[in-house]
Amino acid sequence: MTQVSTFPKSSRLRKRADFVVLSNSTNKHTVKGFLVIWNLNSYGIARLGITATKKTGSAVDRNKIKRRIREVFRHRRLSLPAVDINIVVRRDASVMDFQSFEIELEKAFRRIGAST
Q1: Could you read off the pLDDT tens digit of each residue along the chain, which spans 116 residues?
Q2: Residue 58 DSSP one-character state
Q3: Which of 35, 56, 63, 87 has the fewest CB atoms within 10 Å, measured from its CB?
Q4: How far is 38 from 48, CA to CA, in rounded Å?
Q5: Rounded-to-integer distance, Cα 71 and Cα 81, Å
Q6: Taking a C-beta distance cutoff of 8 angstroms, is the pair 40, 82 a contact?
Q7: Handedness of CA 81, 73, 26, 23 (dihedral sign)
């Protein structure tokens, strides 16, 4: 039995090829602090990848942002359709609090659910 509060390896984008396929996707949505790119997959579950470059901030800032994104995704992954999602972090995200993360990513996740 899979718990909702876990983030198993099967729910992660881990290979460069997965990110390359997503970069060519036409399904993109911009919210404050993030660019969300998605594509349907054949795995039957939502999978997440995060891209945070040095432009975003220091290593500490980037890791904090990635932890927050994973936390929001972890709680909502079972309500998402079977898609691969890459969240590209923008500079604005480094000054956002956790509640703002949730609000903005929830907007993106609703858009994904509506478009599939």
Answers
A1: 445 567 888 899 999 999 999 999 999 999 999 999 999 999 999 999 999 999 999 999 999 999 999 999 999 988 999 999 999 999 999 999 999 989 999 999 999 988 87
A2: -
A3: 63
A4: 9
A5: 18
A6: yes
A7: negative
Strand 34-40 and strand 28-31: the pairing is antiparallel
CA distance 109 to 17: 23
Q: Identify the H or E element spanning 50.
A: strand 47-51
Residue 95 Cα to chain centre, angstroms:
18
Residue 103: partners with Cβ closer than 8 Å, 6 or more residues away: none
pTM: 0.90
| Architecture of the domain delimited by 9-115 | 2-Layer Sandwich (3.30)
Q: Are 100 and 90 in contact (CB under 8 A)?
A: no
Both tokens of 27, joined, read 């399904």
Domain map (residue ranges) of the chain: 9-115
Terminal Cα-to-Cα distance of the chain (whole angstroms): 26
